[in-house]
Design brief:
The complex is a heterodimer of chains A (268) and B (769).
Chain A lengths: L1 H14 L5 E4 L11 E8 L3 E8 L1 E2 L13 E6 L2 E4 L5 E3 L4 E3 L1 E6 L8 E6 L5 E6 L7 E8 L5 E8 L7 E8 L8 E6 L7 E5 L9 E9 L1 H16 L18 E7 L1 E7 L2
Parallel strand pairs in A: 2-18
Antiparallel strand pairs in A: 2-3, 3-9, 5-6, 5-10, 7-8, 10-11, 12-13, 13-16, 14-15, 14-17, 17-19
Chain B lengths: L1 H14 L4 E10 L10 E4 L6 E3 L5 E7 L1 E8 L6 E7 L3 E7 L14 H8 L5 E5 H6 L9 H5 L5 E3 L7 E3 L7 E5 L2 E2 L4 E2 L4 E2 L6 E7 L13 E7 L8 E6 L3 E10 L3 E10 L1 H11 L11 E16 L2 E16 L4 E19 L5 E20 L2 E23 L2 E22 L7 E5 L2 E14 L4 E14 L2 E17 L2 E12 L1 E4 L10 E4 L7 E14 L3 E18 L15 E17 L4 E16 L16 E12 L2 E10 L3 E2 L4 E4 L15 E4 L6 E2 L3 E11 L6 E9 L9 E8 L5 E11 L4 E9 L1
Parallel strand pairs in B: 1-7, 11-16
Antiparallel strand pairs in B: 1-4, 2-3, 2-5, 5-6, 8-15, 9-10, 11-12, 13-14, 15-16, 17-18, 17-47, 18-19, 19-20, 20-21, 21-22, 22-23, 23-24, 24-25, 25-26, 25-27, 27-28, 28-29, 29-30, 30-33, 31-32, 33-34, 34-35, 35-36, 36-37, 37-38, 38-43, 39-42, 40-41, 43-44, 44-47, 45-46
Classes of the chains: A mainly beta (268), B mainly beta (769).
């Protein structure tokens, strides 16, 4: 909606011949103290991998400020596992990490997982998360318009006993690819009901629709929505707030579990 | 306590009752017959005794029997003296001649300055259409609200917009009324123009503190817009042709008892864009230009029943419409207000009792209707008010004027209405809230001339609100006093509490059509403000008026939204509110030259505004967007020749407090999400709310009005230059990723400032026959 507002205003101004002027400006930003940033997703049956970085002043010289030599410990039910500073590049997904462990996680839904990071300068950050049960996709159906284009209609049931947060992503032909749909939704409109969510008309006969429905913890959902808001606030004068809600104490980023249901369907 | 106060007022009145006679009448413009609001009638034999005319130029005055001299004056008009030998109640109608028809040889009376000195009212600014028509304006569209922005303590909420922040209040804390009817979104074109067409408006009064007891409902200001009284002399056609819009106005009498005024305004950029779209219709790879226009229609009919009773019907409707034509995605976004009111004024035979009974209907809504393939999206919000008001004033003797009355409002809200429909039921969505509320208030006040030097105005309002099981009521005391050291110097002080039961879900400082009004509920308590103000006023030689005013305002239960709030299509919007406190304090200096060929004013405000929310930045105090330490405005109007007026305005203010990211980091997202562009992985880090000051804002606007000498009527051409020295004031600062020669991101960023208005000339042709 915020984007709609901005688009309308700029369109009206442009229509009246008042095209806004742009110019470089010297911004006197206060000195910036870099913070530790961790991004770690635990997934049942997958090895533990994470990236540990530092933030930078917005106008600082470009670099990917990896933080190496830190002590990273994953704790669960009194057991502490140290995640070594071993870089890993996942060729299947194209993601790279600077801490990884070959030990695979076995999801436990009863108790939380805690991540503790202490770097060489003594900075410490901690975060806690837990696994929640995935929510099944009931169906993913291509729906055609009269031009032969199709959108993907995904259906799933919401559990009325609890507040639920979802992220639904759709890709075309390749599972890990640029997203055709990236929807963040909660059950405010449809608590306990069947939820139907459609994409744009981006599919054609012969395509494969890959649908992934993440059942998110509240922490992860708030992180995703506020990151989205912060990116908008950076370019939109009408955006309300740019603060990112993170579950990392002492730093930035996210420590979350990935529980999801995945389905694919060929468009016919 | 309150009952005691009322008894005290009434008893003191009765004790002082003497055998006074009553003079009633109307003060009007000699040329048009239009009543002059705020004209002063002074009894020269008794210092400090007098009256002001109401919104239609009518007055009632108690005067001792015998020979008396009345002086009738109004700013910009030649004052008149009338000697009467009173042996019974008299009706006197006075027609004043405009001073600017006679130019420099006329010294315009400074009586209005003295009236400002002697009144108990603090913190009020009145702008009439004559002043507004003389000043330079953006795109040639005369706008009374933008003239108010040039007064101390009133700040524009954004470049070129008509939104205002008054003494540290947010945009939703201003009550806009058109003939007493609430206008919920008083702007067009996303805030760039106000809804008040200059052809239909007589004046606008802005109360910043010391609010009269009859006003309530918003914390920071009341903007009372009065419609133009129709001419009773002859039929006239007027209008203007401008860069953005054209106006047409018809006014005149129908017989002896009825007179009317109708005014319309419409933009016409869409006429040209439609022609371009038709021409490009068959060309491949061309996108149609969106169609946009707005219009206003104002009407007023006055009916005089007899000398002591009259009716008038006032109506306003205006809408903005934005249409995005496309084969694939068609969208229409329209929004607007309607304000209708019926007023019945009555005066008793001895003119000591005046009654004003009125009924009002106010409506605001926005609708966004889009069609995409088989889907229709219908999104909107709105509010509807049905209001009854009664206001009675009673003048038991010349030293007391007691005013009392009440109002009752029934409101229907429609909040976050979202309807998505298609042929398939499983694809349909229908959400939204439709609360109904009652709101009301009773008030009483007394203006009391304690001594010729000391005047008190004390009042109490009791307001109440109910929605389902949630109910609130609150006393709102009002008191102000004036002590006159001499006829030209006075000290005033006031205290006022205001309560606000309706809250605006506003996502920015601008008054956007998508902002949603939301009522108090069990969870959302009313907002309160308490304001103290003190002013020293000095009428210097009837030529200058110098005012220095200090104020302190405390705000409680003010609303904002939690971080990450879902403001769009949310059925439980009240869960997104957070509550906090605020304060604002400052000093306003105002020097106005009210006589001579050169007129205008200089205003300077030094002010601080704070907000504090437990749920924002951990409860740390922060400056809201509209906090500005220094604010200067200089306004000058110079009558160079009988037909040529030059004008200039210059404003300077400290930059807005805004949130600007100071850091950034990379978030690569989860393993199953591919982010192709590295720039899209960047997350900005905002250290705190409104952590950054925009560069200072300053701008010079110039204007000149040349009146032609037509055979009949009046015509003029108005030329304006907005931002004459082309200061590129940043509207927004954003970061942009740097790219190399191949268009690939380098990973570095630079700050960019976006400016809305460079130097802009405009021309308007006005006519009246």
């Amino acid at each position: 909606m915020k984007r709609i507002k901005q688009t309308y205003i700029l369109a009206v101004l442009a229509g009246l011949g008042l095209a806004a002027c742009q110019q470089d400006i010297d911004v006197d930003l206060p000195p910036y103290e870099p913070k530790l940033v961790v991004e770690c997703y635990l997934e049942d049956g997958q090895p533990v991998r994470l990236t540990l970085l530092e933030s930078r002043g917005y106008l600082d010289v470009a670099s990917l400020p990896l933080v190496d030599g830190a002590t990273v410990v994953l704790s669960h039910q009194g057991q502490n596992d140290t995640i070594p500073n071993v870089p890993f590049v996942d060729r299947a997904t194209g993601k790279s990490y600077n801490y990884s462990s070959p030990r695979r996680i076995k999801a436990s839904y009863e108790s939380p997982y805690t991540l503790t990071v202490t770097d060489k300068r003594g900075r410490t950050l901690t975060a806690t998360t837990r696994f929640i049960k995935p929510v099944a996709i009931k169906s993913i159906t291509p729906e055609f318009n009269n031009k032969g284009e199709a959108y993907g209609l995904t259906k799933f049931d919401d559990n009325p006993q609890q507040k639920n947060y979802y992220r639904l992503t759709l890709t075309r032909n390749i599972r890990v690819d640029t997203l055709s749909l990236d929807a963040l939704l909660d059950d405010a409109f449809s608590n306990g009901e069947e939820i139907n969510w459609g994409s744009g008309y981006t599919f054609k006969p012969g395509d494969t629709i890959h649908a992934t429905l993440y059942h998110c913890t509240e922490d992860y959902y708030k992180f995703l929505t506020t990151v989205q808001s912060a990116r908008q606030a950076n370019v939109n004068p009408f955006a309300a707030s740019g603060e990112v809600i993170s579950n990392i104490r002492g730093g930035l980023g996210i420590f979350a579990t990935l529980t999801y249901d995945y389905r694919s369907v060929v468009v016919k | 306590m309150k009952i005691c106060l009322l008894f005290f007022l009434l008893l003191s009145s009765a004790a002082q009752a003497q055998s006074y006679l009553t003079v009633t009448g109307q003060v009007s413009d000699a040329a048009s017959g239009v009543g002059l609001a705020g004209a002063t009638i002074t009894v020269l034999e008794r210092a400090g005794s007098g009256a002001r005319t109401d919104s239609d130029g009518r007055f009632a005055l108690s005067v001792a029997a015998g020979k008396q001299t009345l002086r009738i004056s109004y700013l910009g008009y030649v004052a008149q003296r009338i000697t009467v030998n009173l042996s019974r109640n008299e009706v006197i109608n006075v027609r004043l001649k405009a001073a600017d028809n006679q130019l420099s040889e006329v010294v315009v009376t400074g009586q209005s300055n003295q009236d400002k000195v002697m009144s108990t009212q603090t913190s009020v600014d009145v702008v009439d259409r004559k002043t507004a028509l003389s000043l330079p304006v953006v795109f040639g569209e005369v706008d009374l609200i933008k003239v108010l922005q040039l007064k101390p303590g009133v700040k524009s909420t954004g470049e070129g917009t008509s939104g205002i922040s008054v003494r540290g209040g947010s945009t939703d804390q201003n009550l806009f009324q058109y003939d007493g009817t609430t206008v919920y979104n008083p702007s067009h074109m996303f805030g760039f123009f106000s809804t008040f067409n200059i052809d239909a408006v007589k004046n606008v009064a802005l109360y910043k503190a010391g609010f009269p007891a009859e006003y309530s409902g918003r914390l920071s200001s009341v903007v009372d817009v009065t419609s133009l009284t129709p001419r009773d002399s002859s039929f006239h056609v007027g209008g203007g042709i401008g860069l953005i819009a054209s106006r047409l106005n018809l006014t005149g009498p129908i017989g002896n008892k009825i007179k009317f005024n109708v005014a319309g305004r419409r933009t016409y950029a869409d006429v040209f864009t439609e022609a371009i779209n038709r021409r490009n219709g068959d060309r491949p790879n061309t996108n149609p230009i969106p169609r946009y226009y707005f219009y206003d229609l104002n009407g007023r009919i006055d009916y005089t029943i007899n000398d002591r009773s009259r009716l008038f019907l006032s109506a306003y409707t205006g809408r903005d419409r934005f249409h995005l034509p496309s084969d694939v995605f068609r969208s229409t976004f329209d929004w607007g207000n309607t304000a209708v009111s019926l007023h019945w004024h009555q005066t008793s035979k001895d003119a000591r009792w005046n009654s004003h009974t009125s009924g009002h209907y106010a409506q605001y809504d926005y609708r966004l209707v889009s069609t995409f393939d088989r889907f229709t999206f219908n999104i909107g919000s709105g509010i509807e008010d049905f209001v009854l008001k009664e206001r009675v004033s009673w003048q038991p003797n010349p030293r007391h004027t007691v005013t009392f009355g009440g109002e009752l409002t029934r409101s229907r809200f429609s909040i976050s209405r979202v309807n998505i429909s298609s042929a398939k039921p499983e694809e349909n969505i229908d959400t939204g809230e439709k609360p109904r509320v009652w709101e009301g208030g009773l008030f009483v006040s007394d203006d009391w001339d304690v001594t010729p030097k000391l005047k008190l105005s004390a009042g109490l309002r009791w307001s109440g609100f109910r929605q389902d099981s949630a109910g609130y009521n609150a006393p709102e005391p009002r008191i102000s006093a004036r002590y006159a050291f001499s006829p030209s110097v006075s000290l005033k002080a006031s205290y006022a509490r205001m309560v606000q039961y309706r809250h605006l879900v506003v996502s920015s400082g601008a008054a956007l059509p998508t902002d949603i009004w939301y009522p108090s509920t069990a969870k959302i308590k009313p907002e309160y403000s308490d304001q103290l103000a003190a002013a020293l006023t000095w009428n210097i030689g009837n030529t200058f008026l110098l005012t220095n005013e200090v104020y302190y305002k405390r705000l409680r239960q003010v609303v904002d939204f939690r971080t990450g709030a879902q403001l769009f299509a949310n059925d439980r919007l009240e869960n997104e509110f957070v509550f906090g406190n605020g304060s604002a304090y400052g000093n306003e200096i105002y020097l106005e030259k009210t006589a001579g060929r050169l007129r205008g004013w200089v205003g300077y405000t030094l002010a601080w505004t704070w907000r504090e929310f437990k749920d924002i930045d951990g409860g740390k105090r922060f400056f809201p967007r509209y906090d500005r330490r220094h604010d200067i405005s200089v306004v000058a109007m110079y009558q160079l020749r009988p037909r040529l007026t030059l004008s200039a305005t210059w404003v300077y203010n400290t930059g807005n407090a805004v949130s600007l990211a100071t850091g950034r980091y990379v978030s690569m997202d989860n393993p199953y999400v591919r982010v192709e562009n590295p720039t899209d992985q960047v997350v900005p880090e905002f250290p705190s709310r409104n952590n950054f000051r925009m560069p200072s804002y300053h701008r010079l606007d110039l204007g000149f009005v040349y009146k032609f000498r037509p055979r009949r009527g009046e015509t003029d051409i108005t030329v304006n230059v907005t931002n004459a020295y082309n200061r590129l004031n940043p509207y927004l600062i954003t970061y942009q990723a740097e790219e190399n020669a191949e268009g690939e991101p380098t990973g570095r960023f630079r700050a960019r400032a976006i400016t809305l208005f460079p130097l802009l000339p405009s021309v308007t042709y006005n006519f009246r026959f």
